[in-house]
Amino acid sequence: MRRNRKVKIVATLGPASSSAEMIEKLFVAGVDVFRINMSHTQHALLGQLHDRIRAIEARLNRPIGILADLQGPKIRIGTFADKEAKIAGGQTFSFDMDATPGDATRVSLPHPEIFAAAKEGDNLLLNDGRLRVEIVKAAANRLDTRVIYGGTISDRKGVNLPDTIIPIPALTDKDRSDLEAAASVGVDWIALSFVQRPDDVAEARKLIRGRAGVMAKIEKPSALNSLEAILEISDGIMVARGDLGVELPLETVPARQKQITRAARRAGKPVVVATQMLESMVVEPVPTRAEVSDVATAVYEGADAIMLSAESATGAWPDKAVATMDKIAQSVERDTFYRSIISAQRTDPQPTSADAISAAAHTIGETLNLAAIVCYTGSGSTGLRMSRERPDVPVIALTPIAATARRLALGWGLHCVLTDDAHDLDDMVVRACRIAFAEGFAQPGQRIIITAGVPLGTPGATNMLRIAYIGKDGAAGN
Fold it and tell me: Among 154, 242, 421, 453, whose Cα sits 20 to 30 Å from the Cα of 312?
C-alpha cells in the first residue's frame, strides 16, 4: 500500500474510531500513525487498540506506527459555592490555598508550587485563555491579581502560566503508570506533555529504556527557550498548538510553528504539527478554507507529519477527515512551488560518513532521475538521515526490525518495508531491486540507488552507495 505523498498523517483514536472496522478504514484512507490519548484511555483499552492495529498491520502487510500521548500535569482551580462566578475586568481577584468554595472575589488554587514560583507581573490564564489576570501581589499562600479579561469562571477550570517556570515534573504518577503500560504493550512513540526543560525529556528516556521513541510536545514558552537542548535529547517533536496558542499571543504562533519545524528539520528529528487542523470537520463534512490553508502551510514547511485530534477521535466524519487531509497534502506536493520551497530549507549534512552518503544519494538520485533511493537501516538512523534530505526521489527504507519500520512510519517520505538482512553485497542489490519493483516504485530498465553499511548489518555504519538497474520481473540487471 503505497502513499502518494511524502508527509505523514497521524490520527487520534477515540469513541468515533476505536472499532477494528473504523481503524482499518482510517488506515486505508491515509493514516500512517495512530495516536492514543492517555488522558481518556484506560490500560485495558490501550491493549485492545494496540492489538486491533497490529492485526490490521499483519493483514495488510504494512508497518503502522502507534503513538501514546501522555496527559501530563493538569493545573486546576478549586470549586465555587455556586458552581461558577462572574469576574469583571479591572476588579481584584485572589487565589489561595483555602479549600473553601470560592466566589466572585477568590478561589482555591491547590498547587503550592505555583505560589513558590509566581511573581508580581506574571499572568494567569483560565478556561483555555478566555480569562486573563495579572498578579499584583505574590505571597507564600496567596496571589492577588487584577482581572485583565473577565467573564464566567466555573469549577475545576484549567490554569496556564505563560510567564512562569513551574517547578513540577512533566511526569505525574498517572503518566508514569501510563508510560510503563504503553512501553510494555509495544507502542512506537511516547509523547511527553508539559515539557519545560531538557531534564523533563531525560527523565522520560530513563523510564522508557529504548522501548519507544520519545516525542517532546512543545506547548510551553519555557520550552521554546530551551528548544535546541530539548531537540538534542528527544527523538521527535510535536508542535502542540493548543496550549501554545493559549500561552503565547495568538499572532505569534505561526512564526513559532515555523521556528520549531525548521529546528527539527535541521536536527533530523521528525516533527508533527498538531491541534485544530480540520476542527470544523468534527461536525461538518467539509473543512473551512482557512483550515485547508493551515494544513497546506504545514506541508509546505516540510513537517514530517500533520495530525488530527477531535476530528478523528470524536467527530462525525473520521474517515472523511483523513481523506480530506490526504487530498490537501497530495495537492500541495504536486504544486510547482512546493519543491523549490522544500529545497530552499535544505540543511547542510553533518560531518559524518552516514550524512555524507545520504546527501550524495539525494544528489545522485535527482541528477540521474533514478526511480528510488533504497536505504538499508537497522536502528532507523539511516532512514531518518535520508528523510532529513527531503529528496524528490522516493525513499524505500528496508529493515529486518519491525519496531524500526513502525517508528519510521512517522518519517517524511519514508516507505518502510520489513525484510531480512542481506547475506552479501549481491543479495543486497538483488533484494533492493526486487522490493523496489514489487512495491511499485521502479520498472524494468530503470535504475535505483542503494545505501548500506559494510560490514552488512552493522548499525550506524552506512558507508556505501551502489547504483543498480532493474531487470526483468524486478531482478537486478547489468
Answer: 154
Distance CA 40, CA 352 (A): 43
Q: Output DSSP code: residue 76.
A: B
Residue 422: HSE in the Cβ half-sphere, 13 Å Cα cutoff: 24
Q: Contact, 67 vs 40, CB < 8 A? A: no
- Whether residue 76 lies in the annotated active site: yes
Condensed to tens digits (0 to 9), the pLDDT of residues 171-230 reads 999 999 999 999 999 999 999 999 999 999 999 999 999 999 999 999 988 899 999 999
Q: Which of 6, 8, 157, 217 is catalytic?
A: 217
* C-alpha span between 252 and 199 (Å, rounded): 26
Tell me, yes or no, if 132 is annotated catalytic: no
Q: Among all chains, which residue has been given the C-alpha cell 475545576? A: 156
Cell, residue 137:
501581589
Phi, psi of 67 (to 5 degrees): -115, 120
Select which of 3, 25, 54, 76 is catalytic.
Answer: 76
Joined together, the cell numbers standing for residue 109 give 488554587
C-alpha cell at position 110: 491547590
Q: Determine how many CB atoms are found less than 10 A away from the CB of residue 84.
A: 14
Q: Which of 5, 6, 8, 35 is the catalytic position?
A: 35
pTM of the model: 0.93
Q: How far apart are CA 300 and CA 303, in angstroms?
A: 8
448, with CB counted inside 10 A (0-12, 13-18, 19+), is buried
Q: Which long-range contacts (CB under 8 A, 24 or more apart) does 279-288 make?
A: 279/310, 279/311, 281/311, 281/315, 281/317, 281/320, 281/321, 281/324, 282/310, 282/311, 282/314, 282/315, 282/316, 283/315, 283/316, 284/317, 285/316, 285/317, 285/320, 286/324, 287/324
User: How far is the C-alpha of 146 from the C-alpha of 143, rounded, in Å?
Assistant: 10
The sign of the torsion formed by the CA atoms of 357, 363, 365, 367 equals: negative
**By the 8 A CB rule, do 156 and 79 touch?**
yes
* 275 is annotated as an active-site residue: yes
pLDDT, tens digit (0-9, with 9 covering 90-100), for 346-386: 888 888 888 999 999 999 999 999 999 999 999 999 999 99
294 Cα distance to chain centroid? 16
Q: Could you tell me the sign of the dihedral formed by the alpha carbons of 5, 390, 213, 59, in that order?
A: positive
CA-CA distances (angstroms) from residue 465 to 98, 136, 376, 424? 68, 64, 11, 15
Q: What integer is the mean pLDDT of 301-324?
A: 97
Task: Answer yes or no: 105 catalytic.
Answer: no
Taken in order of first residue, the domains within the chain and their CATH numbers are 8-72+169-335 (3.20.20.60), 84-160 (2.40.33.10), 353-477 (3.40.1380.20)
AA identity, residue 115 = F
Grid coordinates in use for 39?
Answer: 488522558
Identity at 346, one-letter amino acid code: R
For residues 294 and 245, give the distance between their C-alpha atoms in angstroms, rounded to a whole number.
14
